[in-house]
Amino acid sequence: MSLVLLALLPFIGALLTSITGHAHRNLLAGIASAPALVGLALLAMLAPSVLAGDVAQIRVDWVPALGLDLSLRVDALAWLFAALILGIGVLIVIYARFYLPAEEAMGRFLALLLLFQGAMLGIALSGNILLLLIFWELTSLSSFLLIGFRSDKPEGRQGARMALAVTGGGGLALIAGLLLLGRIAGSFELADILASGDTIRASALYPPALVLILIGCFTKSAQFPFHFWLPHAMAAPTPVSAYLHSATMVKAGVFLLARFWPVLSGTDLWFYLVSTTGLVTMVLGAAIALFRHDLKAILAYSTVSHLGLLTMLFGLGTPAAAMVGVFHLLNHALFKAALFMNAGIVDHETGTRDIRLLGGLAGLMPVTATLGIVAAASMAGLPPLGGFLSKEMMLEETAHIVWAGQHWLLPLLAVVGATLSVAYSLRYIFHLYLGQRRPSYPARPHDPPVGLWAPSALLVLLTVLMGLFPQTLTSDLVAPAAAATTGGTAPPFKPALWHGLTLALGMSIVAVAVGAAMLWRHGLLQRLWDAMRLPDAKWLFEAAVDVLVRHARAITTTIHNGSLQRQLGLLFIVAIALGSAGVWTGGYAPGTRATIAAPPVAIVAWLLLLAAVGAVVKAQRQRFLTLIYISVIGLIISLAFIYLSAPDLALTQISVEVVTILLLLLALNLLPKKPARLSSNGRRLRDGLIGLAGGTATGLAAWAVMTRVPNDPISAYHWANSYAHGGGTNVVNVTLVDFRAFDTFGEITVLGIAALTIFALLQPATRGVSGRRLRAWIADLPRSPERHPMMFAVAARLLLPLATMIGLYIFLRGHNMPGGGFIAGLVVSIAMLMQYMASGFEWADQRRRIDEHLLIGLGVIIAALTGLGSLFFGAPLFTSSFGYFTLPLIGTFELATAMMFDIGVAMTVVGAVMLALAELSRVAQRAEGDGDGDEGPMDIDPAKLREADA
Fold this sequence. Notes:
Largest sheet: 2 strands, antiparallel
Strand content: under 5%
Helix content: over 70%
Number of strands: 4
Number of helices: 39
Shape: elongated
Structural class: mainly alpha
Radius of gyration: 34 Å
Strand order of the largest sheet: 1-2
Distance between the termini: 75 Å
């Protein structure tokens, strides 16, 4: 279970930081750091066995029919990646504590950071590729929120949208590719897939699966031509850049290349697609980085370049190159996270990131300069640092690769990329720290407090130690991870500062010399670069998006023009056409199930239904009257449920009818009571024919189903196991809270979202143009002189505790008799609705003690935690447990975990109804102009009136 705890820790931390969001910064940082620290302790416990070649794993059935299991798996590669995620995550939290200004919502920031951390950790630990896809998409969503954290800035919103569009689109391709991969392997379990390399490479589906998977990897890791999103994501706060764009999100695509290297590599298609893309990205990113002026932009394009280097190494297809890729993945995470923090410090203390306005900071910020120079030197691949080791090994591997029949081409381009890397790294060092001191700066430069530079200092120290003692510090990490990546075929890992006079050393010397010369002539090169007027990837992307949006808008306005009649008409026409096509091609045979004669009561109810439907059509322009007829239809359906021995459905139907009718009455109060004629006679005839056809088709489909003997229906299982497995004799309730609890959870989630949507739509209604229209609204029906009748108010208040007790009774008995959380929630909601109606919104709202948003959120969370709790006991998700207990005076009684789930359902229902009521009431108040302290009934104390008269 340690793996489950490891995967859940960041999400628990995100929840805690959200709850304590207004606490002191130190407390928030401590809470946010704790999950990563505990996670690192768990990884340390796994290290002896995992780094020795074992695989720690756990597998719990989740949705077996789809092949989706909660399968977690830690081998050496996953261990290394998880350690980077958690280790750098702790340092980022500490850095953010000192970096973010006091006015920033630090609780929300850290909660989003931990949510992202959990998603990345899930990618590393997933043992099932469908589960991996869930975490993959979660990284896109959480990174969108982090990049756009400062939503008041246009560049933040734009960068977040761009990142989501590119990585989200790539995620869709990855979904398709991994589904094909699972189909080829016959399993979605990662272990089974990794053991099926020959089968996968020999399959006819290998090329499309590979291309789709690579699109997902390339978009996430900012490979050409998808590289442009990453630099624009630099609008995020620097802690986000240091975390997402050094060690985590952008490494996810590279990690996936390493993860599937044993089964996807080894073909010409892999070699040319992956190595070429990586090589182009490496050179292009480095070239652009050399001519950027924003510090974070320089580091962003350098990240693109190094990601291209990693992609190229894995694309070469040799075990040795893959081993170097694993080594450089570690090196790059260390020096690049340190550099992003360093750039943030400069921005924080000088007030600018424009390198043209800076220079000579070494004397003014000695600590910051030392850390930045060492980290940048490692990025350049200078000895004796960790970056030098992996760069030398990279050059050595490219020297032995033949690309398109040419022995010299790949080494030459690798040297070009390394040269540009040296050039932009030296520019960072000299133009920022060692150049001429400026006469003035936007702010007075000085070293920050230790809390701001200490995290980067630790990373810089590690990159120095890795260079000085590579065999001691890295061998036990990289060698097992490389073995896990290559399936055990990696050569011995022997990093060293000196391998003798080798070709790689000569290539490195050329790169350093030419890179230094490019720095010397940087001004000339900058002018030449600016004169080329190269196309801007951001502009091309935005132009493509504009074209897509214009065409989408044209199609949308053609099909979806706001006419509900058209939408429903198209829906019915398509449904009827598909159903008719099925009957036409598949044939139809009458059912053999015996029918029974309809009793007079059923015939009368059917005639009443027809009459009510006809009345709705007839009175369609009288909205209040139409609503009354609709309520009659609901009542008849409730009676039909009772007649057919379905009391749970009857209680639910009648409760829903009462709630919806009351809310609709409040909403219709502000609409014209007799709207203008909406359709011509021809359109009404058309709509009537479509409606009759749809109703007839639905009736025939119901008849076809009911006249057939069911073939092993699932209801038989529910009947047989309701008490034995669910602990209840009410099959309907046990099905809702146990057998189909996941469906119920989805339904209450949708209900909560619907209520929040009502809130979002109606909140602005009292402001701006709509607010002015509300203030100008004139009631079109006479108003009662007694707004809140005394008898109604007294009766409603007396009924409130009684209705609450009835709701509690219905809730408690629901597991064995008709009732349950949903019905109980509706009953309590009706009681609350009566208070608002009888005593007015102001009176009732002043006495409300629980926020509706909180009620919805807690309801969904309680239901979710109840479902997740079953996993800790080895049971499938949302499985309930029950037992019998005996207490003095009370006797023996049953308790089931499903009760907690039902509590969440009831809370969500009450919260959703109350939120909708509150927003409708606020709009009505604004329209009627009585929102300024309207006194409700019984708010006046008669005794005080007598004292005043005296």
